[in-house]
């Protein structure tokens, strides 16, 4: 049996922490680094992992280096910034970005790393914190097939469905399409729930009927109760969903695609973000829907 590769995990946020924990449970020799050092110390106090002083140090101690941070700027800083991972990556190494960023940025990062003879996958994930915790994420990877096969054991420690979706950048694009579909669906769900509530419909009965009918969806199952209860504890932050929708719109406009539904969703999430709900779960789009409907009906 081939020896398991050493893994560095950079970014221990809401998603990164449980993903890294699953790598430890799967038996990988793990080195972690986080921009806020105390977070890394807390992780290592609970899990068998090494704590690096920099992204460079973490990458230098590993064969496969994973980044999981909010957006393009942070990915570029962690990889190419001062004492960034690129300085520690060795020829023949593999970098995997599991953040959700613009496809063009993923392609550019891959090109820079290949100049160092380092492989690269853009491999964002679908599924919020509970799926990260139990290792059942969906992972979509763009890049060379050989790099994907090399990464498969690492990715399968974190996800139930791991799919090679195509060349560099396609992992990022597939994720943006998926998240924007979810964002649109969640907004439509919020609007429907508001209609039901204002009309005096039994929302439990509504959810039972819709859940067994053509209107059923993951958003109905996961977000209807939080929307009705105004329980916006963050499993996936609204500000991150807004960021993903905006990246989707940029990609769609570059492809000459009309985005009436995506643009409508962007306006609602942007309003919720302006109202101070960016750090809340994206179910908080319900607040913007309610505000937009204030004064209408009874």
CATH homologous superfamily grouping of the largest domain:
NAD(P)-binding Rossmann-like Domain
Oligomer: single chain
- What percentage of amino acids are in beta strands? 5-15%
**What's the number of structural domains?**
2
CATH topology of the largest domain: Rossmann fold
Coarse morphology:
globular
Helical proportion, percent range:
40-55%
Sheet/helix structural class: alpha/beta
First-to-last CA distance: 67 Å
- For the secondary structure, the number of strands is 9
Spatial extent as radius of gyration: 20 Å
H and E string: EHEHEHEHEHEEHEHEHHHHHH
What is the mean predicted local confidence, pLDDT?
96
If strands are numbered along the chain, what order do they take across the biggest sheet?
Answer: 3-2-1-4-5-6
Largest sheet: 6 strands, parallel
Low-confidence stretches: none
Structure characterization notes:
The chain is an alpha/beta fold. It has 2 domains: 7-167, Rossmann fold; 173-292, Orthogonal Bundle (N-(1-d-carboxylethyl)-l-norvaline Dehydrogenase, domain 2). 53% of the residues lie in helices and 13% in strands. The protein has 13 helices and 9 strands. It has helices at 16-25, 37-46, 55-60, 72-80, 103-114, 129-134, 145-156, 170-198, 203-211, 218-229, 238-254, 260-277, 285-292; strands at residues 7-10, 30-33, 50-51, 64-67, 94-97, 119-122, 125-126, 137-142, 159-166. The chain has a 6-stranded parallel beta sheet, sandwiched between helices. A 3-stranded mixed beta sheet has the order 7-8-9. β5 (94-97), α5 and β6 (119-122) form a beta-alpha-beta unit. α8 crosses α10. It starts with 6 loop residues before the first strand and ends in a 6-residue tail after the last helix.
